[in-house]
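Hi team, as promised in this morning's meeting, here are the two structures we talked about. I've kept the exact order from the run log so nobody has to guess. The first one is mostly here for context; it's the second one we should focus on when we meet again. Sequence first, then the predicted structure tokens.
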Amino acid sequence: VAAMSTFHPEANPALAGQDVYNNKALHRNKQIHRMLGTMPTLAAYAYRHRIGRPYNNPAENMSYCENFLYMLDNLNQKDYKPHPKLVKALDVLFILHADHEFNCSTSAMRHLASSGVDVYSCVSGSVGALYGPKHGGANEAVLRMLESIGSKENIPKFVADVKAKKSQTDGLRPPGLQELRPPRPHRQRYC
């Protein structure tokens, strides 16, 4: 992510001058839009490389999440479109993540931005914080928990075990945090 700044030297304070972002929200937002447009392609390419499949270029006329899923999953079908329920689920997941409030990666981003570095370096630092097991690891814990449940027939037993304190819900909000910061109504609708 940090290397993306080399494609846009006009956005790098070390190359374009230390005042490149001073009172220039339009310039800063341009870099953010570039990053938002490029990140799904980078992530999809990394995934496809990892599983040994050829890359899929972004498709036109698809939504943000639909295009990301297309780049991840298309196996060269001519008219491939991701399933609408998966697209909606990813849309909601991205919204919930964006609304996660002030957390470790947000803090890292703000601290780096306050030093005047470029947007790409800020995002790189926040991605590094998100990668840590105490922050982004919670998402992995939820996935492992869901895999251990197996199928929806096992949900009642799992819930009973949690209530009896024989099991726990990994990666989810602890009760104390729920009391301090209850979920917002739009979160409750989807969760």
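And here is the second protein, the one for discussion:
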Amino acid sequence: ALPICLSHIEAMVERDRLRKLAHWEKLHAQEQEDNLFHPKITVYAATLGATEGSSEVPNFNPASATVAQRALMPVSERLYADAFALEDRKVARERQRTQIATEERILSSQVRMNAETRKRPESSQPTIEDSLLVRHEHLKAASAAKANHLKAIEDRQRKPLINPVSDAI
């Protein structure tokens, strides 16, 4: 039997395939070098100044960590702790606002009394503050009545009243 040998054309095709394979491997290796993951962090995270460490202490609260403990925490834990502390401050501010609003509402609904009005008998003259409060309540009631009257007039303009006698005419 004749030994198997490649013809000249087949040899050229095989060399071309090998050359393309080597070229592809070279491009792939270059692409692997170029596409290595190079994480970029924000300036804020970079200035936190932590080295790799762990905070695997049981019952460890990152939000209340000291400066020394924060230096040992990974950046991700410190960022989480900062976000958690910020959210806690927002919740505390909102709770304080609602508490102040509730107290103001309670105080505004109570009768205001000072030391002089407590000592006086009820039949004596009202204080200036009491008379101003009464006047304010009267003005609020008059304003509400006027608003209701204007609303009624406006409603009548949109839906005029029909005289029931007009049908008989």
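Starting points for discussion:
The chain has a mean pLDDT of 77.
The first helix runs from residue 8 to 34.
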